[in-house]
Specification:
The protein is an alpha/beta fold. Helices cover about 40% and strands about 20% of the residues. It starts with a helix and ends in an 8-residue tail after the last strand.
């Protein structure tokens, strides 16, 4: 319990620090769900400190899409920002606050971003994608990979210095994804927001 409490304090402090960069409409951090890697996302969400939003990713799995309604309800009761990954229809159906788009779906984002007053975020993975993202109407970007990560989808980490430089040059808030832990989250939060799939399981 002591370890979980210490981890919670780290993430709460980091979310507060990050808020200076992410602004009043976005959380300092995001928990990204993953039906293959996080077995009980709702349990994790129940333990998230204030200032952490949720991005629901269903990857086309019917159970995860159905669960999204309960997850959105949990987040709304807790006053958390909640987005749906790559699925505008589900975002509208659940009453989520917006949509998170992978970079490969940027054309869909461009067509749909003005719809319904939702928040829109997008994933990027390189300086070239960061530059290209300026042409798209997003509220924030999630940049991967920042720290070394064991995720099968993780690329070569750019490190904190390059993330800080990217955050300074970005016209919208930038979130660090990849290798985020309680040990380094406050470092990332000095320059932008943060996001993780697995780090928040340490709260349980």
């Amino acid at each position: 319990m002591k370890h979980a409490a210490a981890v919670s304090r780290k993430f709460r402090n980091a979310a507060s620090l990050a808020q200076a960069h992410t602004g009043p409409l976005l959380p300092g951090g995001f928990f990204l769900t993953d039906p293959a890697r996080v077995m009980d996302a709702r349990a994790v969400i129940a333990h998230l400190p204030d200032g952490i939003g949720v991005i629901i990713r269903h990857f086309g799995q019917a159970d995860a899409m159905e669960d999204a309604f309960d997850v959105v309800s949990d987040c709304q009761r807790a006053g958390r920002i909640v987005l749906i990954g790559a699925d505008l229809d589900l975002a509208l159906a659940t009453g989520a606050d917006g949509v998170h788009w992978p970079y490969r779906m940027r054309k869909d984002l461009q067509r749909q971003s003005q719809s319904f007053g939702l928040l829109h975020t997008m994933s990027i993975h390189s300086p070239a994608e960061l530059r290209a993202a300026r042409a798209f109407p997003v509220d924030a970007l999630i940049y991967s990979t920042v720290f070394p990560s064991g995720s099968p989808s993780a690329g070569q980490p750019i490190g904190l210095s390059r993330f800080a430089a990217a955050a300074c040059s970005s016209s919208v808030p930038l979130y660090a994804l990849g290798g985020i832990t309680a040990a380094n989250v406050e470092k990332a939060a000095r320059f932008g927001g943060f996001a993780s799939v697995s780090a928040f399981e340490a709260l349980l």
